[in-house]
Amino acid sequence: GESVGLHLPTLSVQEGDNSIINCAYSNSASDYFIWYKQESGKGPQFIIDIRSNMDKRQGQRVTVLLNKTVKHLSLQIAATQPGDSAVYFCAENMGDYKLSFGAGTTVTVRA
Amino acid sequence: DTAVSQTPKYLVTQMGNDKSIKCEQNLGHDTMYWYKQDSKKFLKIMFSYNNKELIINETVPNRFSPKSPDKAHLNLHINSLELGDSAVYFCASSQRDGEKLFFGSGTQLSVL
C-alpha cells in the first residue's frame, strides 16, 4: 500500500505487503529528517533518520528515501506486520534547533 | 529503565486551576523539550531547554511556565487552565538540539 500526494491521513495495507508512507517537507534549507512511529497511548518512537547529504538510508525492514529536488521524503516498510499499525510522522530540522512535525499518517494493517 | 519519564500519565482538572507536569530523563542529554499534541495528532513544539537555559519559546501563552532545575529535569507548570489546554503533552530529550528526540509516554490533560 502507498500514501500518495502531499499527505494522506490514512493508509490501509495487507499484512505481508510493503508499505510506502509519503511526506512533503516545507523548507529547502532543512538538513535533517526523522521518521517516528506513535502507537496508541504512547509517545513517538524513533524509527530512522537521514541527513540532507544522503538520498537513501536503510534500517531493519525500513528504508527512508529523500528527494531534495521536490522536497519529498518517504518511508518504506517491508513485509508489513500487525505491529506496524500506528501513526507515522515525518519531522524536519530547519536548522533552528527544533524538529517540526508533519501531520501524521495512520497505518492500519489488515490480517 | 525508562529513558524519559513524565508524570502524571493522566490529569483531569477544572478550568481555572493550576497544575504541573514533571519530566525526567536519564540519558545524559543536554536538551529537553515540551511538545503539545492536539486531538488531530498534530505535534507542536512549545519549549526547548539546553543545559537548563531556555532556547525556544514558541509563542506559548505565559500561563505556561517551564522550569529546569537541572539538565535532567524539565517541568511544566500551567496557571489558570482553560478548556483549550486539553491535549496530550510530551516531554522529550536529545543529545543535540533538534536531532533524534526521545519522547516520554505523554500526559493526557483534560480540562473540564
Helix content of chain A: under 10%
3D shape of chain B: globular
* Oligomeric state of this protein: heterodimer
- How far the N terminus sits from the C terminus of chain A, by CA atoms, comes to 14 Å
Order of helices and strands of chain A: EEEEEEEEEE
Q: Tally of extended strands of chain A?
A: 10
What radius of gyration of chain A results from the CA coordinates? Answer: 13 Å
Summed over residues and divided by their number, the pLDDT of chain B gives a mean of 93
Largest sheet of chain B: 7 strands, mixed
Strand content of chain B: over 45%
Please give the count of helices of chain B: 0
Strand content of chain A: over 45%
What does this structure look like?
The complex is a heterodimer of chains A (111) and B (112). Chain A has 111 residues and is mainly β. Chain A has strands spanning 10-14, 19-24, 32-38, 45-51, 56-58, 62-67, 72-77, 86-93, 99-101, 105-110. Helix content of chain A is 0%, strand content 51%. In chain A, the strands form 2 sheets. In chain A, strands 1, 3, 4, 8, 9 and 10 form a 6-stranded mixed sheet that branches. Chain A starts with 9 loop residues before the first strand and ends with a strand. Chain B has 112 residues and is mostly beta strands. Chain B has strands at 4-7, 10-13, 19-25, 31-37, 43-50, 53-57, 64-70, 73-78, 87-94, 102-103, 107-111. In chain B, strands 2, 4, 5, 6, 9, 10 and 11 form a 7-stranded mixed sheet that branches. Chain B has a 4-stranded antiparallel sheet with strand order 1-3-8-7, with no helix packed on it. Chain B is globular and about 35 Å long.
